[in-house]
UniProtKB/TrEMBL annotation:
Name of the protein described by the UniProt record: DUF983 domain-containing protein
Organism domain of life: Bacteria
Keywords in alphabetical order: Membrane, Transmembrane, Transmembrane helix
Residue spans crossing the bilayer: 53-74, 89-107
Length: 132
């Protein structure tokens, strides 16, 4: 088991935002675009901390959709003011809302684990035993 001491209280969140293991900061936690490995290949921290754990990641992906839609819509308005192309902004935003959850769900999981570890640090029993 390996656990890098967090540099600050929000270090796990920053690591999760960077797509790294929120516990140790190592890379390679993604099994695919939308899946994390069961545990970190480096520190063995188990990412699923309890039953129904990824509901939190769904909350994060909802926030990401809102952020990306807001950036698209408000950015589009500011860049084209006063002749705002409302329909392309709206339809582009709807397409964005449909695509973002599929592209960023894995990232939302690492963010969620980081957010959770920020407030509830890892416990010893949450590390998988090393395989011999
Ligand atoms: Zn790790």
């Amino acid at each position: 088991m390996q656990q890098s001491p967090p540099r600050s209280r929000i270090t796990p969140l920053v690591r999760g935002l960077r797509g790294r293991c929120p516990n140790c900061g190592s890379r390679g936690i993604f099994a695919s675009l939308n899946e994390l490995h069961e545990s970190c290949p480096t520190c063995r921290f188990s990412f699923v901390r309890e039953e129904g754990y990824w509901v939190g990641a769904m909350t994060v992906i909802f926030a990401l959709v809102l952020i990306f839609f807001g950036l698209w819509f408000i950015g589009g308005m500011l860049l084209t003011w006063p002749d705002v192309p409302w329909n392309p902004l709206l339809y582009g935003g709807l397409v964005l809302n449909g695509i973002v959850p599929f592209l960023l769900y894995g990232w939302s999981k690492s963010i969620w684990v980081g957010l959770d570890l920020t407030f509830f640090p890892a416990r010893l029993e949450e590390f998988r035993p090393a395989e011999d």
